[in-house]
Amino acid sequence: MTSRPRRSSDPPVLLVEDKDSLRVMLRHTLEGQGHAVVEARDLPEAALALRSSPVGVVLTDLRLTDGDGFGVLRAAREVDPDLPVIVMTAFGSIQDAVAAMKEGAVDFLAKPVDSDHLLLLVERALAQRRLAAENILLKVELGRRRGAPQIVGQDAALKHVTLQLQRAAATDITVLLEGESGTGKELFARALHALSARADGPFVAINCAAIPETLLETELFGHEKGAFTGAASRKPGRFELAHRGTLFLDEIGDLPLALQAKILRALEEKRFERVGGTAALQVDVRIVAATNRNLKAAVAAHQYREDLYFRLSVFPIVIPPLRERAGDIPMLARHFIERYCHDLSKPPMTLSSSAAQDLMAYPWPGNVRELQNCIERAVILTSGDTIHAQHLNLSFRDAAPPADADDDPWARIDLAGSLAEAMRRTTMEAERRKIAQALKAAGGHAGRAAELLQVSYKALSQKLKDYGIDAQPSGPGRSP
What we know:
Layout: E1 13-16, H1 20-32, E2 37-40, H2 43-52, E3 57-61, H3 69-79, E4 85-90, H4 94-102, E5 107-111, H5 115-145, H6 156-169, E6 175-178, H7 185-195, E7 203-207, H8 213-221, E8 222-223, E9 235-236, H9 238-241, E10 245-250, H10 257-269, E11 271-272, E12 281-282, E13 285-291, H11 295-300, H12 306-312, E14 315-318, H13 329-343, E15 350-351, H14 353-361, H15 367-381, E16 386-387, H16 389-392, H17 419-441, H18 446-453, H19 457-467
Parallel strand pairs: 1-2, 1-3, 3-4, 4-5, 6-13, 6-14, 7-10, 10-13, 15-16
Antiparallel strand pairs: 8-9, 11-12
Helix pairs in contact: 2-3, 6-7, 10-12, 13-15, 17-18, 18-19
């Protein structure tokens, strides 16, 4: 076959083969045709590669020293149900290849591998992926015309999330958006709604952590006249208001245990009663939920119903934190600069190289929301046409190094394990320190600290409990 330049949009081929000599030969064959290749020798390495970055096609031997091709196939389908997998097998084991195709493999190659046939199958699989991506882009454009919010970024992890969002939007499946605070979960929920067949229906959002437990049930399900003191008239709840549309349950991890059973029934049957009512109401609602908590851990700690968790996490989508897609930070910053210059009627501004470097170096514990606030403040403070580093007011710029590293709590952070595990521990320590700092500034009053941190009192109370920090409920004259 004649060589062709690799398309810049083509993700790499994941090659899984335990025999070094054959793997090297196959890699050279693929690279000779312009394909990028990621190598793995067994199932654990293949599973790690699939989780680490998107791939375009998987080429795996069925017989591996650790695991087998069926395990690779299942791992690929867990990451992306539409990821094409091509299996290789010895000539005498064609029945195994047939079994693999029944499980979802797109094709098979008999050994010894014919190079031309291999390249033909790989190119065919990548062409199908490109066609699917083009269809998704058309759906994105249609969604924008119908009011879908713009998702800014070119990072591979973000593109993978967008791809999952597109696939979920084509169905009525319940979606669980997982991610840290400030990653834009509501933005993704609104995009999913705008890209779905329910786009002409209502999008109704409710933050389960921002409403007191005593009021949350009536907000969700409504109430009848006279249901309680002050209920002067019938009031529809969010489930009713979202009929034939999408209901976004934000911070679903903070849902009180007492309400979880009723939410479960509403999700399963699309049926509920208003508070104080006896008639069952039927609604046609698509549910999208979001959380920044580890719901699996909450289930294990008996703080969350397992059946509700499984009902919510039918189609989970994990939104990466901003620090894991640092390459998108300058693009996001420019996007917010343009927005706030327009909103504040200021002339167009640019970002200096020093400011861009500071933005890239900062860990953004508040994620995109923190970056957005930072840029809005910088646009307000800047009197010229260029935003410089001093306009950003990033906390790390003024942080003095500790006099003695032995007294520095950061020096004692456990950096063992994977990058994600180390980052999680570091983020938790930063969060604990920030909360303690806010409490000190608030004189120990949790209500005022919540205002300083720009989080709900309920969310801060949970954090205080998680970290074992004592605080007064509220300051003088304040209420949570």
